[in-house]
Amino acid sequence: MQSEAFVSVVLTELNEAEEIARAVDSLLAQEPGAAEVVVVDGGSSDGTWEWLEARAKIEPRLIAIRDESCSLKHSDGPVSRGRNVAIRAAKSAIIACADAGCTYAPGWLANLTAPIARGESEYALGGSLLDPHGPTAWDVASAPYFSVQLDPNAPTKSCTARSMAFTRALWERVGGFPEEVLVGEDTLFDFAARRATSTAFVNNAKAMYRPQNTYYLACHQMARYAMSDGMARVRTARLVRNAARCLLEVAALAALLWTPWIFVIALGIELHYGFRRDGVRVARYGLRAVAARLAFSVSVPWVVAWNHALGLVRRERQTNWQNRGQ
Length: 326
Description:
By secondary structure, the protein is of the alpha/beta class. The protein has 12 helices and 11 strands.
């Protein structure tokens, strides 16, 4: 098998002072190690860049790049631009994408890139796992809606750039990450990659994700993704499905004056959507997590349908908290 020394890990960040050390240190601790860990900073003002500079002086495999064009001052898609800048600077034929908000087990890189190194695929997805250390009830509630698993052994089925690897040749063929969108860029890259090649799903290469969500933060993130889908004109079937759930919920409440059965049917559907994938594991987190999952499941169709529809007509770009004021 090709050595992991021929793999470059890339990530992009902006104002991640609270998370960057955990992410970078876990990536540098991979066994076997990567040839390099390339981090693109989009112009941080919270001390993140200073930490990266200092760490890079004592760790030659850490390549820190400050590029302020990877921010909303200069790009509609700063995350995509940051990844593309990092990949252009990387020296390896195999690229692994990571996320500044995650940590990685020592064998993550070897497991994720193994199908590519063996020549079985040009593209591999590892998925993400909710960090079991101190998740909030809303982390548990929102996890499957953001493709985050609660079970470390659950199969990987969807894409996320928190744990993604591909050949440089594939990245070049699909035109890199799309720099016209702020969020959902990994989904658009995934669509292009799956059209170009087969995909290897790796179950034992999940990124450990710790979002620390509240109800508001989880809904806000869902809204941003849905709006991005609308602006990109993708996932129309998802819009229709969620709009239908909204109509059913309204009909169920209205029909309570005559019959409870439509409400019972609607509740059964929401329980199915909310708990079909990981209900047993949600229950292990307690009644509060179960209640939060049901509340979030009921909220999702409204958040998705409304914001996806807004995205279809929206022209101004989205922003995020790291780019506040830009």
